[in-house]
Amino acid sequence: MDIADARALDDRDPLAGFRRRFIAPGEHDRVVAYLDGNSLGRPPLATRDRLIELIDEQWAGRLIRSWSEGWLELPAQIGDRLAAAVLGAAPGQTIVADSTTVCLYKTLRAAAALRPDRTEIVTDRHNFPTDSYVVDGVATELGMTVRWIDSDPASGVTVEQVAETLGDRTAVLLLSHVAYRSAYLADMAAITALTHRHGAVVVWDLCHSVGSVPVELDACGVDFAVGCTYKFLNAGPGAPAFLYVRAEHQDDFAAAIPGWMGHDDPFAMEKAYRPAAGIKRALSGTPPVTGLIGVEQGVALVEQAGIDRIRTKAVELTEFVTALVDVWLVPLGAGYGSPRDPRLRGGHVTVTHPDAARISTTLIERGVIVDHRPPGGIRIGLSPLTTSFAETYSAMEIFRDILDGATAG
């Protein structure tokens, strides 16, 4: 395999044209390859244009009138588009709201309230830290116990492990669909069905799958889900997250953070809280309009590309990197920290090394933007709409040279 092979793959890539729809870094930024789109996606050109329009025409021109001319409807409208494009969810169940952490807190509290006679929350010990912090916090607030699944950090939580941990005291199971370290893709359908057989409800964290892996929330019978929008959806730093509440749970959804936007009539200015019907009761404060514009344009790109084509390219890119890791990096002391089967792998590949922190810093200094996840992981994030095979090849060459130099030294 050489650079010509990589360029040939780019020539055949049906999504190659989407790269031109993103703002490229300037030459002074010395970016050889951006392989961290699973942490922060690149900015779409359309987002810049739409934000300028928002500021010049709506904010400056229509001023406060814009709230009643469309702004207030954005969370639900964009939520429905997101649901149709990537979540496999019918309208009226998804809304763009707060940060992932806040959305997770809301859904966990609501999920626990559905099982008031049960006392345990089950989650993965190696889940993303904010998930664990929220679980601990909710358990403390409600006097519940946390049961931890000891998954393998190089893979993820299996159906068998879930079966061993669930019991008649389990109220809620919280898992990530794609593990943030290894990219392990959990079996959502089987785990959700198993959870329901035990009488519990499930909350899925979709942060590392939304926009990269097709999701079927309705078909899998998922109760609740949350996810960020600034990774594969390219909505921008700190863009608002979304939450999904299955239609059958919405009447019983207890607002952990009741706010005026979740009120049945926000502008009635009533003293007592009266929850809105449907998914809007999951809202709390004023919608972040500038952030919502980023979500809107990121979703539009995914709609146009098609989630199945995105997934196909994600598999091709991760297989491409896997081959180079095996040929170039493993002989130089690196390890492979992701599932080998592409059907069990999300949109990134993790390379392991005892000196991962220093190597990550050196890669970034040489223009290969990756991220380090302790203790020894270097994540190669492959965003199908913005990542080419040629830049990936060049990045892996630099990776090889850094390891070769360390070995020689």
From TrEMBL:
Q: A Gene Ontology biological process annotation?
A: L-kynurenine catabolic process
What do the Gene Ontology cellular component annotations say? cytoplasm
Instruction: Give the reaction(s) catalysed.
Output: L-kynurenine + H2O = anthranilate + L-alanine + H(+); 3-hydroxy-L-kynurenine + H2O = 3-hydroxyanthranilate + L-alanine + H(+)
Q: In which pathway does it act?
A: Cofactor biosynthesis; NAD(+) biosynthesis; quinolinate from L-kynurenine: step 2/3; Amino-acid degradation; L-kynurenine degradation; L-alanine and anthranilate from L-kynurenine: step 1/1
Which key words tag this protein in UniProt? Hydrolase, Pyridine nucleotide biosynthesis, Pyridoxal phosphate
Alphabetized Pfam families for the sequence: DegT_DnrJ_EryC1 (PF01041), KYNU_C (PF22580)
Enzyme class, broadest EC rank: hydrolase
Residue intervals passing through the bilayer: none
Which GO molecular function entries does the Swiss-Prot or TrEMBL record give? kynureninase activity; pyridoxal phosphate binding
Query: What's the stated role of this polypeptide?
Result: Catalyzes the cleavage of L-kynurenine (L-Kyn) and L-3-hydroxykynurenine (L-3OHKyn) into anthranilic acid (AA) and 3-hydroxyanthranilic acid (3-OHAA), respectively.
Please identify the protein, giving its name as recorded: Kynureninase
